[in-house]
Structures are given as structure tokens and as C-alpha cells.
Design goal:
mainly alpha, 12 helices
Length: 325
């Protein structure tokens, strides 16, 4: 009896060690895979603060929390099941779907550029700032594309792992990346409040607080610019790599050739310069594709909305005139 109990405890200990090793392997693999997606994570963190720029201070963190929850839903309820199923049964569909998301990012970025140039708001951001539901849904839509890119990059790094290991690694990356991105965003948007509190103290701390308060509007404006550029860069890069994977090698080959030439010509800075070249060309491609989509949407969907509104207004006036006094 005692011998059987000892044997059972030995088996439990072996299983515990195996489980611990498995968890450790998942953690290491998740860290390595997540590092590959770090660029998109930075883009995600840069894009998000623009959605809370015009909000009252007390609404900033609650809105970021709602966007973060939406991001978790995106990752765990939509992206994770979808990419696991697609990678298991129809892996060739991943690239076209990702390219559609890239085209949407290009559209979003190009529309913001056009709104800045034309001195008007393409999305009606003043109205959106008042309508929190609209604001959150727009942010979560953009997050869906960036999250999909993060998850697909991670998947490509662990594609040879068994199904359950893939699932565990992707789940860890999804959770850690969401906490990291939206935790950083919450800190960024509340820095001015922290500066205001520090400014009420005395000495150098108060001066630092006042400097922080003055600097934060510029920081948020800079992040808005970075976020728009990130949409164009990430969207363009998705289209560039996707077109190459689908057999259209010209665009990727041309950019890669220039990137390699810049790398070889700049010595120790070759890696950085090559990355900048690739980023600039990806952003240019994203802007061109986004501009085309903006023109198409402007002269189709957006043109129909005012026409429909005018018809509704005319019908309302006609109905009012027809009413007996």
C-alpha cells in the first residue's frame, strides 16, 4: 500500500515537472514570438491616444478600459479562433484576409492626412468625441487590424508547434500585448494630470510638474502624427509582403533592392537605414492605396449619405406642409 502511494507520488511529481517545463517553454516561445511583433505593438500604442484627445479628463481611463476590453474580445473571440482554424485547414487564406485589413489601415491613415490638408474632419471627430460608443467602436475596429497583424506575426513564428502549444503561446501573447499597449496608453494620457498634481508642490518638483503639463499636448499631438504614419506604414507593409507571397514580386522586389543597396552603402548604420528605407516605401505605398480608397469611398458611400439625408429632409418638409392647420 505504502509502495503504491510512493509510486503514485513519484508519478505526480514527474507530471508536475513536465507541466512546469511545458509552461516554461510556452513562456519562452511567447516572448520570442512577441518580440517579432514589437513594431506593430508600438504602432498600436501610438494610434490609440488620438481617440481620447478631446475627452474630459475623467472619461479618458474609462474609455481606454473599454477599448482594451474590446481589444481582448477581438483577440480571443475573433482573431485567435480564426487564425488557428485557417492555419490548420486553409492557411492560404491568411494572406488575402490580412491584406484586406492592411487596405483598411491605409484608408484610415490616408483619410486622416486628407482631413488635415483640407482643414476639415473626415470622420466628424468633434461629434465622435461626444459619442463615446462611436469613438470606442472606431478604436476597436482599428485595433482589430493591428491585433490581427500581431497575432499573425506571432503565428508565423510558432507555426511548427503542435496545435495546443500554438494556442497557449498565442493566448499568452494576446494577453500580455493588450495589457502592455493599453497600460502604456493610460499612463501617457494621464501624465498631464500627474504633472498638475506635482505642480501644486514646491521646489524643483513643481517646476517639473508645470513642464510636464505644458509638454503633454505636444506629446499627444506627436503621437497622433506617429499613429497616422503607423497606419500607413503597417498597412503598406502588409500589402507589400502579401503581394509578394501571392506571386506579385515586382513591388516587394524593388523595395527590397533599394533597402539592400542602402544597407550596403551605410556601413554600421546599414540595419537602421535599411529599415527606414523599407518603412518609407511601405508608408508611400500605404498612402497611395489609401488615397485611391478614399476617392472611391468619397464618390460612392459618402456622396450617397448627403443625398439620402436631403431626400429625407424634403419628405419631412412635404409631410409637414401637407398637415392640416
Amino acid at each position: 500500500m505504502a509502495g503504491g502511494l510512493v509510486a503514485l507520488l513519484d508519478d505526480v511529481a514527474v507530471l508536475a515537472r513536465a507541466a512546469a517545463a511545458s509552461v516554461d517553454d510556452v513562456g519562452v516561445a511567447a516572448a520570442k514570438a512577441g518580440a517579432k511583433a514589437a513594431g506593430v505593438v508600438i504602432d498600436d500604442a501610438a494610434v490609440t491616444p488620438q481617440y481620447v484627445r478631446n475627452l474630459a479628463a475623467e472619461r479618458e481611463v474609462p474609455i481606454i478600459k473599454r477599448i482594451a476590453l474590446g481589444s481582448l474580445r477581438n483577440k480571443f473571440l475573433i482573431i485567435l479562433p480564426a487564425i488557428l482554424l485557417l492555419s490548420q485547414f486553409v492557411p492560404w487564406l491568411l494572406t488575402p484576409i490580412l491584406m484586406l485589413g492592411g487596405a483598411y489601415l491605409c484608408f484610415e491613415g490616408a483619410e486622416k492626412v486628407w482631413a488635415k490638408i483640407a482643414h476639415h474632419d473626415a470622420h466628424g471627430e468633434d461629434e465622435a468625441a461626444k459619442d463615446e460608443k462611436t469613438l470606442v467602436s472606431g478604436a476597436v475596429r482599428t485595433d482589430l487590424i493591428l491585433s490581427a497583424e500581431i497575432m499573425v506575426i506571432t503565428l508565423n513564428e510558432v507555426i511548427d508547434e503542435p496545435f495546443w502549444s500554438r494556442l497557449a503561446i498565442l493566448a499568452v501573447v494576446a494577453l500580455v500585448m493588450t495589457v502592455a499597449v493599453y497600460g502604456a496608453v493610460a499612463l501617457i494620457v494621464k501624465m498631464d494630470d500627474a504633472g498638475l498634481r506635482l505642480s501644486q508642490l514646491s521646489g524643483p518638483v513643481a517646476g517639473f510638474g508645470r513642464g510636464l503639463v505644458k509638454a503633454m499636448p505636444m506629446v499627444l499631438t506627436g503621437l497622433t502624427v506617429v499613429g497616422t504614419a503607423a497606419m500607413l506604414w503597417v498597412g503598406g507593409h502588409i500589402l507589400l509582403v502579401g503581394s509578394d507571397e501571392l506571386g506579385l514580386h515586382f513591388f516587394y522586389g524593388a523595395v527590397h533592392h533599394v533597402e539592400e543597396a542602402a544597407h550596403d552603402a551605410t556601413g554600421v548604420l546599414g540595419g537602421l537605414i535599411g529599415w527606414i528605407v523599407n518603412t518609407v516605401f511601405s508608408a508611400i505605398l500605404g498612402l497611395l492605396v489609401g488615397a485611391i480608397i478614399v476617392v472611391v469611398v468619397t464618390y460612392t458611400i459618402h456622396r450617397r449619405k448627403p443625398k439620402a439625408a436631403a431626400e429625407t429632409h424634403t419628405e419631412a418638409e412635404t409631410g409637414t406642409a401637407a398637415e392640416p392647420h
